[in-house]
Amino acid sequence: MIRVNAGGHEFSTELFVFDKDGLLFKSSTFWKGLVTARLKAFESLAGPDLIPGWAKLLGANIESGSNGFYVEEVSATGCFALASPLEEMIATAGYLALQTGLSWNEAREASRDIFSLSDNLFDLESSLEPRKGFPGIFRRLREANVPGC
User: Fold this and answer.
1) For 17-46, b where at least 16 C-beta lie within 10 A, e where not — what string?
2) Residue 45 contacts by C-beta under 8 Å, 6 or more apart in sequence?
């Protein structure tokens, strides 16, 4: 068992899995969940009028329904999928400054607030859809004597 401190929290675990490329979990499901949280936060703090252009800028195809906006698809080559959270915040701040006339400092602060709220709204567990065969792959790797598994 190892202990790791991250973001002010301590975690005890036997394994951490980093899956940026979607080998173990479906990336599209993760991205949709994350973008949904971002949309809710953006709408809550910046209003609904700017959402379509912002989503398009950051690489999400969205639709508007009776329950508000929902994510149709997230581009695998867009900002939401490839950029770091800091890069997403910078793009968002620039968009807010351009569209609203906020000063850079105001737009940057609004962007920080949006991303902070969206991180709190994001439901990681429901956004992780394992690929077929996961987590059994780790058992098979151990049986094949692959080190570290």
Assistant:
1) eeeeebebbebebbbbbbbbbbbbbbbebb
2) 110, 113, 114, 117
Q: Kindly state the tokens that stand for 40.
A: 């809710």
Read off the pLDDT of residues 96-131 as tens digits, 9 standing for 90 and up. 999 999 999 999 999 999 999 999 999 988 998 888
Distance between CA 38 and CA 6 in Å, rounded?
A: 22
Mean pLDDT of the chain, nearest integer: 90
- pLDDT-based confidence at residue 67 (cuts at 50, 70, 90): confident
| Residue with the two structure tokens 């939401």 | 80
* Reported pTM: 0.80
Distance CA 102, CA 94 (A): 10
Cis omega before residue 52 (within 30°)? no
> How far is 18 from 98, CA to CA, in rounded Å?
36
